[in-house]
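[stage:ingest] chain + small molecule (pyridoxal-5'-phosphate)
[stage:ingest] validated
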Amino acid sequence: NLKLSEKGLKISPSLTLDITAKAKSMKAKGIDVVSFGAGEPDFNTPDNIVESGINAIKQGLTRYTPASGIIELKEAICQKFEKDNRLSYTPENIIISNGAKHSIYNALMAIINPNDEIIISVPYWVSYPELIKIAGGVPVYIKTKEENDFKYTINDLDNALTNKTKAIILNSPNNPTGTFYNEEELKEIADWAVKNNVLVISDEIYEKLVYDGKEHISIASINDDIKKIAIVINGMSKAYAMTGWRIGYAAADKKIAKIMSNIQSHTTSNPCSISQYASVEGLLGDQSSIVEMKKHFEERRNFMVHTINNINGLSCKKPKGAFYVMVNFTKLKGKKIKNVEINSSLDFANLLLEEGKVAVVPGIAFGDDDYIRLSYATSIENIEKGLSRIKKIVEDK
Ligand code: PLP
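[stage:predict] done
[stage:export] tokens:
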């Protein structure tokens, strides 16, 4: 008869971390599993950043820092916003946290009153609904369609709007679909948000991973009105292969930034001092390694998409950004493969793991049971090996 938190009991575990853990434990037992589960670059952190981290340790920069982060990194982040996004912020607008996930958490804690509604699109990044619930809010879902590039319209937003709507979370480029909104679409969303006084949490963690020569645009840069009500989220994890260093950041109006910083000061205090110093080098130092990583991701994407579309029963669109492919398997639904009837994305993912020794994430983790998600943050050889195993299973050879 443990008396536990009702709010806590409603939080589901992170299914993506769960699958990667299962694949890792199979690998540890010596089973040759190909994992497409990864939500992180397979590259090492660039040397110049690593060196800066080592130097920070040697110089004794190993103590508490101001709760919302060191001034050097805040200034580097302001420079980054100016250079990459045409956004002008000062250090008072910036809060540095333990990863972008933590930044989103702080943002939601700063704006949500009990039962406030936060609009997100489906498929969504696994943590959004749970983070909203932890903060006492209610996730409101807009289902998007593959034929519309997994994007919603102003009409969809109008239909989701109520007098409890507090914010939307926009994730462009998107995990898991790889879609991104162009300038015209962002302008429409910005106008809608301003008109309806709805805050925008803009998760731009995949900004550096946009392909086909296109460039990411931050919704906050559309005009000053939207900038006032936007909380821009970004971080070091994906672009700089720094997932373990845990540095994310947010830029917001000073009032919002202050509340986020106060919340952080009583929960985690500052993010790791060493990682902060290393991140200064990441943002201000040589950027050639991130250009190189992006080149690899783009090649892998092209190869993966082409190969998947040559497997009977599976199909996918070419994602425009991030490092994931949403694979549509509706043609296999109701069919029996290796004596397993495929009725859900979990059935399909389990079959692939158990029979094919390939780890994928079931779409249900993102709220869409017609898909599985494959990450191409792995080598071309692995992609080739894993997809040929999937082909064998699916074509039942
Ligand atoms: N936002 C999205 C859409 C993500 O996919 C991720 C990581 O998977 C994050 C935020 C969090 O990144 P981190 O907390 O490592 O900075």
